[in-house]
Each structure stands twice: as C-alpha cells, then as structure tokens.
Amino acid sequence: MTSPLLELSNVSLQFGGVTALSEVDLGVEEGELYSIIGPNGAGKTSLLNCISGRYFPTFGTISFDGRDITRLRTDKRAAIGIGRTFQNLALFGHMSVIDNILVGRHHLVRNNFLTGSLYWIGGAQKEELEQRREIEEIIDFLEIQHIRHATAGTLPYGLRKRVELARAVALKPKLLLLDEPMAGMNLEEKMDMARYIVDLNDEWGITIIMIEHDMAVVTDISSRITVLDFGKKIAEGVPEEVMAHPDVQRAYLGDDELEEA
Amino acid sequence: MTDTTAGRDRLDTFPKLLRHNAKAFASQVALREKDYGIWHPMTWAEFDQKVRTRALALRDLGIGRGDVVAIIGDNRPDWVISEIAVHAVGALSLGLYRDSLESEVAYLLTHSGTALVFAEDEEQVDKILNLGEAAANLKAIVYTDPRGMRKYDDPRLMKAEELDAAGARTARQRPSLYDEMIDSVSGEDVAVLCTTSGTTTHPKLVMLPAGRIIDHARKYLQFDPKGPDDQYVSVLPMPWIVEQVHVFGKALLCRMPVSFPEEPETLMADLREIGPTFLLMAPRVWEGIAADIRARMMDASWFKRRMFALALSINEKAAARNRRSWLADFLAFRALRDRLGFSRLRSAGTGGAALGPDTFRFFHALGVPLRQVYGQTELMGTYMLHRENDVDFDTVGVVIDPAIEVRIEAPDRQGVGEIVTRHPNRFAGYFKNEKSTAETMRDGWVHTGDAGYFDDKQHLVVIDRMADLAVMASGDRYSPQFLENKLKFSSYVAEAVTLGKGREYISALICIRYSIVSKWAERKQIPFTTYSDLSANPAVYRLIRDEVERINATLQPNQRIAKFVLLYKELDADDGELTRTRKVRRSVIEEKYGQIISAIYAGEPAIDIDTVITFQDGTNQRIRTRLKVETVETGMTGASGEQAA
C-alpha cells in the first residue's frame, strides 16, 4: 500500500498548560472526502491549523505527499498544494469577487511588480488573461457569475462563503481544508455547498478535509470520519461505524443520557 | 431585403435561410454568447458550419422526416444550432421550458413520441432519465454541460461534442449530403411544435410550418423594420412562439445579431454590456425592473431622490403636451437608461399578459419606447402591435398586416365578445389532436377564446379569457383578470387572485411583493422575520387596504373588492399555482386555498392556518399562522351588511 497523501503521526499541540491536541494520528488518502467532527473545543480547528501551518505542533510530525512539512511555512504549504477556508470569513471586504479569487492564484503568477508595469511587453497581459480564464472556470463551477464584479463585503453570508471557497480552489490545491463550510447557512445553501464540495472532490479530484457540525451532511458525503474529543482521537472510520461507536455517542450525548437511554 | 423574389421563394426554411446568409454575409456576426465572462461572437459561416455537422450527426443516428426532437435548457446558441439542425433533417423541433416539472416533460415527450432530446445539463437530463420506460421512442439524450454527469451510465446519453465529431466525419465523406437534405424539405412541412400555455389542461402542441413563420416574420419586419445594425438580446423563454419568431424568423431574415445572456441572474449586467436596440421581455420582468428602480431610489441619497422626483414631474408636464423633456433626460433619465443598458434601445415590447399602465408610463417617462404585443401561439405569436407613434397603454394596438382579419364575434351591448382571427400564416393544426383543431379553427377563423372589443381608434382592447369572465350571484358579469391586473399594478402587490363567481361579492387573495414591502417596512421601522410574518403584519394590511380602496374608487360598486386576505406564501409555478408563463391557475388555487375561501364567504374575521410548504430542494417547512380577513367598504349592500354583523 502506498503512503497516504497526508499523514499525521503522534501530533500534540500545547498552549502553555493547555493541551489542544494530544497524540493524534491521522492518514488521509488521495481522493478522500475526510471529515473531522467533535464537540466544541475538541481541537478540530487546531488540527486544521497544524495542517495548514498556522500552528506548529509541539510534538509529532506531519507529512504531505511523502514530504515532512511539520515546520514548513504557511506560504510554502500553499505552493505545494494545501489550500483552506476559514471558519470566520477571511475575505478582502473592499475588493471585488474576482480580485479576491485572483489572490488565490498569487503564487502561480510569474510576473512581478516590475515586469507587470511593462504590461503589454512583459507578457503580463497574456498572463492576466490566462489567470482570468482559470478563475472564470471556478466562477462557472460555483455559479457566482452574477456577482463577479460585486464588492465582496457587500454580499450575503452564503455567497461570501462560496467566494472564499472559490479563492481556496483557485490555489489549485491537491488538498483542501474546509473549516465549517456550511456554518450559518440555511438548508438550501447547505445543499448547494454540499454539492460543490462533492463535485470538487469527485470531478476536480481534490482531496478534502472538512470540519462540519451538520451531521446529516457529514455522514452523507464523507468517505471517512475522525472524531476528536478533548484533543484526542476517539474514533475513525466510515460514517456508519463512527456514528455507532459508543465513545462517540458518549462524547456527544454525555454519560448520563446514554445510561438513561 | 437583399434577396430577389425568385430566390426568396426558395428560402422557406431556416436551414435554407442560414445557408444563404452564410454565403452572402459569411463574416458578419450572427450570434453572441457570454461564456467564462467574455462575449464570444459567432459569424453566419461558423453558425452554418455547426448546424451542418450537427444535422449530419442527427441523420446518422437515424433521425429523419417526421421525427420529433425536443430541446430543453437555457437560451443559448447551442439551442439555436440544434433546432435548425433538426429542421435540416426534416424532423420537428419541440422546445421545452427550462423550469418544466418532470411530469410536464413526461407528458410532452410521450405525447409527441420524441426520438431524441437535447438537454443542456444534469438538471435537465435528470428529468428525462427519470421517465424510464415511458419514453419508449427515445433513442438518445444529448447534453452539452458534462458537470455532474459522471454518475450516469445510461447508454442513450451522449455528449454534444461526440455528436458533432461524428457529424464532421460524415460531412467530410459526403460533402453534398447536407445541401441535398435541406433542399428536399419544403416550407410547408411542419417544422416547429410549440406548446400552448395549458392554463387549464395539458398543453397542446401547435404545428407550425417554417415557411409560414418566415412569411409572418417578413410581414412583421415590414411593419416594424429591423436590420443588421440592430442588437437583440434573447430573454424570453426560447420555447415560446414569440421568441421563436424573433430568433429564427426575424433574425435570419434581417440578420440582426442575437446575444444570449450568460445566466438568467446576470441578465441586467449582460444587457448593459450589449446595449440592445431591441428587447422583448415578459411583463413580470419589466415590472421587476421598475420595482427594482423604485426600491433603489428609496435607498438612494437625498439628492438623487430629489433629482429623480424632479425629473419625473418635469417629464409628466412635458408628456401632457405629448413631448419629452430634455431637462428631465439630462437630470436623471439618461444616466438611468445607461445603468439599465437601455441607452441604445429603439424598440421594446412586452406580451403574454397585461402590463400595468403605471409601469408603461414609467418606462415611457424614462425614454424606453415600450409597446404591447398581442397574439396566439396558433397565429405565430404577435400579430397586433402599437404603431411607433400611436402607443396606447390600455390597448394592444392594430394588426401588423392588412391580410390578417380580426373581428369580435357575438358582441354584447358594450361591443365585448370573443376575438376571432383569420391569419394567412395560421398553424397547421394541433399535433395528434384533430378534435381540438376543429374546435379552435372554424371556416379558417381561429377562435382565440379571448374576450375583447375595438375602441374608437380601432385599437383592440383585450379584457380576459371568455371562459374566465365570471358571473356573480346577482347575475352581474366581471373580469377577474381585469381586477387582478389592477391590483398587481400596485408596486406592493406581486400576485392577486379574485373570487366572485357565483358569489354575493368579490374578494381577493393577495400576495405582497416582498422586495418592495420589506423595504417599506424597514423604512417604517416595522420589525419582521419572514415573508409569512411580514404578510401578517397589521401595518402591511393597512398598506394594502389603502391600495385596494384606491382601486375600488375607480370601479362600479358591484365590481369592487369587498374583502381580502394576504397569503402567507408567494404563488409558485412549482406548486402548480402558476403556469410556466406565470399565469394563475385558478382551479388549483380554489382547491388548495378552499378552506380560506370558504372562511371568507362564511364571514369569519380570521382563519387559522396550519400547513406545510415544500421548497424547491424538497425540504418542508411547517407554517402556522392566523390569517386576518380584511373587509373593505364597497358601498354595496351585501358585503357591508355582513361587516356590521
């Protein structure tokens, strides 16, 4: 068997005396749609932050595509194909949707400040057109044509989430980390978002790790699920297995209720 | 027209016209589509080439004379190419509305015995695959957008690119085959099947020979000339006869380039980029734009609001003297037209339903030359139109061709009766339905089923469907649609259904226009959560009551609305409450809201509602609310007596 696309071994993260993650092992295969669930404060976002490089783990190693990335800088991780979205939106509110998405392609652009000033001679124009075309495919895919020139900050929440996803996809990631992509959405928006995520995984071949609280969506679209509780991995497997796991039920429902039931 | 009389006789089908244009005007732009954010033009030569390969591929699949090929999707060049290719092999094209329900698609495909479907994307393919065995004749389903299609393995599915590649091979092997094919098809052969709106029953399929569509379009162009310098944007649903006449008949004849919006949602931005000179949109869309302008004006700065109000009032004075004010234009309207993409608009039309005089006046004040069109699917769509200098907001104008005869059958004292028409380019009958054909067409006259009369200027005024004229318990007649339109002309009202047939008095079910009423509520600092909540608000009731009273003042006492209820949801075509062209299905409404209606006439002051709404995505929401029945003073004895009780 080949090694997984992303592998975390024995990862622990401590903030002073607080242990956010303890000895987490995780392996995500290429092409998976992998979900991380757990109660509030279980360490899900911390785990995602370790993968994206916002935090460096206190112990343990993380490898991606057969390469140790434990101490790799965030921007370098973007360059090797790890993209993410945030739980709380992190768009540039004053910029247009297109400009926001273009930011996602920053590391793929060859022209710089100097050659860009020679717009027609230095090939910057040609490159801009190429980049724009790539972005338009993402716009088409996520069905946000009608807002491409709108200012990101003025858009409703559901659409801003979609723009943020577009920006992460523009990175051309191999691995996409989604932190609560459906939080705060209504049912229709959730259904749309779930469809985009499945299509990105299925048709664009992007491996996805997703944190999500909506159990119906998670069990519906994930290939495998990991459950965290107090920084520890308590279960891993296909959705049906994980949902039936007694520790998972305990973590979600609490001991008392389980006994009563 | 550049063609000679001799040549013209031969150009009696769309493929022949297209071949002619491709030879004579090869490099001129025929179609334009926005894709990935960029407008892509297609010349007549490219257009013709695409039709050739697709037609040959259809022939290779065994599609030929008399077969029916259905097309479903958005308005796109690909639709136009497919449709002309279908005609090229002598088959019949059947356009389906993109938002048709599965059951509607099922009926039309089985009734017509469709052999092949062009379905744009997964959404449409889904509808057809779910038909299963019902579509026994169906040989292939051709799709253009591969997204989400990987999960299917139906052997009938085929990508449009594969189809075209096969056609290109045949074209290389037998270069003259296409020309032989289209020369063997005559203009008198039925080419287009158009669905009637089906307000009451299943839609009927109207058989239209291409030669008649072309001849009608030619006469239409003589009445209202268009040419290669015009820019037309295709907005109306493509299956509709009016759009068929424009995109196929007119555009092929006069060579006006046709542009297709990227998505329905991007329409306004696309209009601005194209700057059309000619535009046809449904009344709802015009009303939506007018409502949007008003809503935005409410949000605009104090200065802009004043300028807009000033321009409107200046222009009103000028309009009273039959002129337009350059000052008003300078102050606001020129900028506004530019915003809307109407700067170059020389001609605009609306049809299919009535448009409010207020909306008409509004657009005329803006400098948008909007005109009403009238006609039937059976009679090539539009055949009545306002002359450019003779626009009357209450009428549908005059016939576009003296050869078309219109008379009022069995008029009553006011001259109102059924509109019957003799049209040189009428339909060739209903598909597989000779009984209905005989009922509709008697001695060459098509009985439209519409009630109307001619006014002093010999303009036709259309009131309502004959069958929909209602008789009240007192024996008085009234037109529900006429009343409903009056209600809908209020910018606060989105939909209205009046009841009164066989009753003592008239009452109305009203749906508020959420975009406007919610703005209004915000300005009045009235808190609300959802549509249901807003519509139940007492202040909103008062607002609509004022509107109803204003309308009542213009009516005879026995024609006034005595009671109304604000519905907790908007009427929706997906719930079967409206047709696809957004006309009210009265019988469905009366059945579905029967409880409300009987409570109104039982004299109850309010109705408890406990119901479930199903959304487009299949989810349900339970609604529990108390609907107030608002009583309005009519000056008529019956209803006001009850009010006292």
From TrEMBL, chain B:
Span of domain AMP-dependent synthetase/ligase: 19-431
Q: Report if keyword Ligase is assigned.
A: yes
Q: Which GO terms describe its molecular function?
A: long-chain fatty acid-CoA ligase activity
- Gene3D superfamilies documented for this protein: N-terminal domain of ligase-like
GO CC annotation: what is one?
A: membrane
Which UniProt keywords are listed? Fatty acid metabolism, Ligase, Lipid metabolism
| InterPro entries, A to Z | AMP-dep_synth/lig_dom, ANL_N_sf
Name of the protein in its database record: AMP-binding protein
Tell me what organism the protein belongs to: Microbaculum marinum
